[in-house]
Write a structure and sequence with these properties.
alpha/beta, 14 strands, 38% helix, binds flavin mononucleotide, binds 2-Ketohexanoic acid, FMN_HAD, Alpha-hydoxy_acid_DH_FMN
Length: 402
């Protein structure tokens, strides 16, 4: 159904983004791997979890502030790293970074950004209070500093990888999120058919010294055979290191003082190995259903990861978050905060920096309303994220249609 009138939900912004973006960009952003089972599962799994509300609890005050790796954030919502944001809006990653910084929400910048990591850091360091006419709740909250992490793809060329790490630290990024679910690229059918990074854009974190690493998504040249891989997949196979293993986490720790987070863990076993490798955080993620199709929805995988980590590191989640109530469920099951991928791109496509703020604020408001309507587990004082416990959830029976 087409959205009419003012957009009021993330799905309205999704439809508006689809209408505005080129087919090339939309398909790249929207795609999941193969049959997109996991992509759909991410959202569906949230809808099978029910909230058990309490009533008559004085919910007049709700506080959603928290912290990640010891840094305060305004609410448990951040921007997941997504590549090539300038296909969505000319201001791309700078707009996302300014939106997140001004709302004091964390952003993870992709290695594959179309703006250099230094320029993104600069853009977000000076968020002019009045860069965008904004109501009070959008304005910089001086008590909290912006949180910006860098997402790392480990290149076969370790000198390139090391340079990225050093540049991220020098530019003020405060953690590295190492993506571990992408030793090779998942098969996204639309990208195999046609993806091309527009010729005026580059992977901006690679300079002339890294020639060959700026260009991605070269279209297939005519050939008697049908394309078997996207230009993106070919690039990944050439450049990204598929030998990556837990030993490399130790190597990364030896070359940087930045805390390391692994992004893309879905099992208790890997969560335990991650902690033993000395990481500070784990992102439960299936890459938005874009890598191995058929893996669990992230909200299904979260409890076993939380149990295995057992408080030894922070646990975050991304994948399929489209409502404040999804965030509530993730927090109840032990996530410290969540990250959103595609919705940031919809906000960008809708209206650049303001569009991203609109998306983030909508989710923040929905989370607050959800917490208030769900009541609270302790009956005195303001409701906080700590009050959201697994006991506030129940599970819908899966009804067989046979
Ligand atoms: C268009 C697009 C590009 C992405 N690029 C990256 C990337 O460069 N690095 C990375 O670690 N994850 C990347 N991801 C995965 C996201 O960080 C995140 O795991 C996922 O989008 C979360 O699911 P959601 O889109 O349902 O919120 C990308 C996702 C999308 C949709
Ligand atoms: C190495 C892959 C970079 C982009 C990406 O992560 C994605 O398209 O999902």
């Amino acid at each position: 159904m087409a959205a009419t009138g003012t957009p009021v939900s993330l799905s309205d912004f999704e439809k508006l983004a689809e209408a505005r973006l080129s087919r090339n960009a939309w398909d790249y952003y929207a795609s999941g791997a193969d049959d997109m089972l996991t992509l759909r599962a991410n959202q569906r799994a949230f809808s099978r979890i029910r909230i058990k509300p309490r009533v008559l609890r004085d919910v007049s005050a709700v506080d959603v502030r928290t912290n990640v790796l010891g840094q305060a954030i305004a609410s448990p919502i951040g921007a997941a790293p997504s590549a090539m944001q300038r296909m969505a809006h000319p201001d791309g990653e700078e707009a996302s970074a300014r939106a997140c910084a001004s709302m004091r929400l964390p952003m993870i910048l992709s290695s594959w950004s179309t703006t250099s990591l230094e320029d993104v850091a600069k853009a977000a360091a000076n968020v002019p209070k009045d860069s965008v006419p904004a109501p009070a709740q959008f304005q910089v909250r001086p008590d909290i500093k912006p949180v910006r992490w860098f997402q790392l793809y480990v290149y076969k060329d370790r000198a390139v990888t090391r340079r990225l790490v050093e540049r991220a630290a020098a530019a003020g990024y405060t953690a590295l999120a190492v993506t571990v679910d992408t030793p090779l690229l998942g098969r996204r059918h639309a990208d195999i058919r046609q993806f091309k990074l527009p010729s005026y854009l580059r992977l901006a974190n690679f300079d002339d010294a890294d020639s060959g690493k700026q260009n991605v998504g070269t279209p297939h040249t005519s050939s008697a055979e049908e394309p078997r891989d996207s230009g993106l997949a070919v690039y990944v196979a050439e450049q990204i290191d598929p030998t990556l293993s837990w030993n490399d986490i130790a190597w990364l720790r030896s070359i940087t003082h930045l805390p390391i987070i692994v992004k893309g863990v879905l099992t208790a076993e890997d969560a335990d190995l991650a902690v033993k490798a000395g990481v500070s955080g784990v992102i439960v993620s299936n890459h938005g259903g874009r890598q191995l199709d058929g893996v669990a929805a992230t909200i299904e995988a979260l409890p076993e990861v939380v149990e295995a980590v057992a408080g030894r590191a922070e646990v975050y989640l991304d994948g399929g978050i489209r409502r404040g109530s999804d965030i509530f469920k993730a927090i109840a099951l032990g996530a410290r905060s969540v990250f959103i991928g595609r919705p940031i791109l919809w906000g960008l496509a809708y209206n650049g920096e303001v569009g991203v703020r609109t998306i983030l604020r909508l989710l923040e408001d929905e989370l607050k309303l959800c917490m208030a309507l769900a009541g609270k587990s302790f009956d005195i004082g303001c409701q906080t994220l700590e009050d959201i416990t697994p006991g506030m959830l129940s599970y819908a029976a899966v009804v067989s249609r046979l």
